[in-house]
Write a structure and sequence with these properties.
mainly alpha
């Protein structure tokens, strides 16, 4: 269950981050980039959890 949750959260954060990067405000663009990176990390966490069977 944790695998799926992490992957979904990662996808959502990555999508929101990409949308924020389209802003004209430099601060919002920077926030969007960091949120996209966070999303990618959450997806990777989900992959690890899936490989280990949610034992972490």
């Amino acid at each position: 269950m944790g695998e799926l949750k992490s992957k979904i959260e990662g996808n959502v954060n990555e999508a929101i981050g990409k949308a924020k990067q389209q802003s004209n405000d430099p601060e919002t663009r920077a926030d969007g980039k960091s949120q996209e990176v966070k999303g990618k990390a959450q997806q990777a966490k989900g992959e690890v959890q899936g490989a280990l069977g949610d034992d972490i």
